[in-house]
Design brief:
The chain has two domains: about 1-85, no CATH class; about 85-125 and about 150-240, no CATH class. It is about 0% helix and about 30% strand. The chain is built from one helix and 17 strands. The strands form five sheets. Strands 2, 3, 4, 5 and 6 form a five-stranded antiparallel β-sheet that branches. Strand 4 and strand 5 (about 55) form a beta hairpin. The longest helix has 6 residues, at about 235-240.
Length: about 240
């Protein structure tokens, strides 16, 4: 989402660094954080100098990308840098908007979570080392979400010309089966007889290795709380070529 960034990461307004001033190298959101004479610049993601201050990708070295300092007044760029464990690629990026408390999608068989309004945002991004980047995105291609909504991004690795809309595990907090299917829940009891609350809070230990294909999924497999997500079918078709 524009306001939070699970892997894949969003390097915008969160990792800027001061150049000069009284706080050189410090994290900043605006020039004021850097003191007199300081400038809040972007920060390198990937490459040989991750976290270093920058203004263009070339300053970050091979495989690196420079974030846009979105916290600075007048700056409205977003750069998505996506970590691909093991360097797998190419990478397809999907974009969606959450406008209601119910989220973006529904519980399907499996159980699974089917997104309903994702779009193929960028496809076949090249992975350099372990990083795939969109480069800076302006408001014409990636506008800020409207008040009361949130933009989110999900991505997968998919070879060109292969249909693959599958993403990783999610945490719907919805009932599967029982007497109140698809209702919001936090416990199995709220779903009635025979129902399961699809909440990772009930799943026990989770896979915590970001290099694992099952990162964020329950370590138990099979698990009634394991819910894989997928793109809207039409979006997956657009991202296929």
């Amino acid at each position: 989402m524009r306001s939070s960034s699970p892997t894949p990461g969003i390097w915008c307004d969160a990792a800027n660094r001061c150049v000069g001033g009284t706080n050189p190298g410090g994290v900043c959101a605006s020039n004021a954080d850097c003191g007199t004479g300081g400038v809040c610049a972007g920060a390198c993601a990937g490459g040989p100098t991750p976290g270093a201050a920058c203004s263009v990708d070339s300053q970050c070295g091979p495989g690196g990308a420079c974030s846009a300092p979105c916290g600075n007044p007048g700056s409205t760029l977003t750069t998505l840098n996506l970590d691909s464990p093991g360097g797998a690629g190419p990478v397809d990026v999907y974009r969606g908007v959450i406008a209601l408390a119910g989220g973006n999608g529904f519980v399907g068989t499996g159980p699974g979570w089917q997104h309903t309004s994702t779009t193929c945002f960028r496809n076949n991004l090249t992975v350099v080392a372990t990083n795939a980047t969109t480069g800076p995105l302006d408001q014409t291609v990636d506008p800020n979400p409207a008040l009361g909504t949130a933009t989110f991004y999900v991505a997968n690795t998919s070879a060109a010309n292969v249909l693959n809309g599958a993403f990783g595990c999610v945490n719907p907090g919805r009932c599967f089966g029982g007497t109140t299917p698809s209702a919001a829940c936090g416990t199995n009891a709220q779903c009635g007889a025979g129902g399961t609350c699809l909440s990772l809070d009930l799943a026990g230990p989770l896979q915590n290795n970001p290099l694992s294909a099952g990162f964020g999924c329950p370590t138990a497999n099979p698990s009634p709380y394991r819910v894989n997500s997928s793109a809207a079918p039409a979006a997956a078709l657009v991202c296929q070529p």
